Amino acid sequence: MPLTMHIDPTLRALADQTRLRIMRLLAHMELAVGELAQVLGQSQPRVSRHVRILCDAGLAERRKEGSWVFLKTAIRESAVPPLGAATARLLAVAERDDPGFAARCGEDRRHLAAIRAARETTAASYFARHAAEWDSIRSLHSPDAPVEDALLSALGPALGTLLDIGTGTGRMAELLSARASHVTAFDKSPEMLRIARARLQHLPAAQVDLVQGDFTALPLADASFDTVLFHQVLHYAQAPELVLAEAARVLRPGGRIAVVDFAAHDREELRSTHAHARLGFTDEQMLALFSDVGLSAEVPLALPGKPLTVKIWIGRRHAPASAAALALHLSSDEAPLP
């Protein structure tokens, strides 16, 4: 985000209905330029020109990923610089108080939801077709053993209550069950959950729950898990920021979110062949995603492989200081000097 903004380019950038619509869409999530073109019903070159104007004015930021370009807002109501925060508030008020603009923005979000629903249907069909062979497909991109050994070492022996989001065949839930007081294996695919259920049936029934649902709207209570795991899952998320926000919602103070996924790469064919929505992640991206949901990132671990490198990112939600610890801290601060 730029540290300063100037009024003239800001006002010029906003003096266009299409760019106003783009900014309202970006207020909700990061979007690919191709998605914006579909929603707006305009050619991608034309939308790219609008994107360039918004980025030059400091209102939006681009991020290239393979052959795709993603766009996110560079202004928020609570952020700096003050002109950016004021601009974000102005756009929100405009949608609230201008009925015509509000109707257009609502229609844009409905179009976007339809586009994303179609992509999710395609992904769901892919998982249903390949559920029985999922473990072998996943291992084509990177070997399982070194990644799993590194994850076990990074997480340590006590996981508390564990939520395995995108459990797939239940492989990781089974592997980590001995270290967890309780495991919730979560997946959107009923086919995957049927396989996971068979895999986990040897565990005590009171120790394991299998839950079906969408990882952008977890049907789970706030602050109910000590450890949340995404094992080769987040690259399927159309909006990883929303998925991590949900995971953070169900995480207890002092808990951890572990993301095992690919480092950023350029294997474009994984989008079409294996339904990947994202071509891995950079450390900077993951740090920003963690920070946005209130997590402190630990030093990431890289596991180079052929053809792809896997990384383990862990973010922790710090527990608030206890009343006794706070009292001790205050008393030591107020102690007289010797």
Describe this structure in words.
The protein is of the alpha/beta class and 338 residues long. It has two domains: 7-97, Orthogonal Bundle (Arc Repressor Mutant, subunit A); 134-316, Vaccinia Virus protein VP39 (Rossmann fold). The chain is built from 14 helices and eleven strands. The protein has helices at 7-14, 17-26, 33-40, 44-56, 82-97, 99-130, 134-141, 144-155, 171-176, 190-200, 240-249, 269-274, 283-292, 323-333, and strands spanning 31-32, 60-65, 68-73, 160-165, 180-187, 208-212, 225-231, 251-262, 296-297, 301-303, 310-316. The strands form two sheets. Strands 4, 5, 6, 7, 8, 9, 10 and 11 form an eight-stranded mixed beta sheet that branches. It has a three-stranded antiparallel beta sheet with strand order 1-3-2. Strand 2 and strand 3 form a beta hairpin. Helix 1 (7-14) runs antiparallel to helix 4 and helix 3 (33-40) crosses helix 4.
Set out the fold topology.
Layout: H1 7-14, H2 17-26, E1 31-32, H3 33-40, H4 44-56, E2 60-65, E3 68-73, H5 82-97, H6 99-130, H7 134-141, H8 144-155, E4 160-165, H9 171-176, E5 180-187, H10 190-200, E6 208-212, E7 225-231, H11 240-249, E8 251-262, H12 269-274, H13 283-292, E9 296-297, E10 301-303, E11 310-316, H14 323-333
Parallel strand pairs: 4-5, 4-7, 5-6, 7-8
Antiparallel strand pairs: 1-3, 2-3, 8-11, 9-11, 10-11
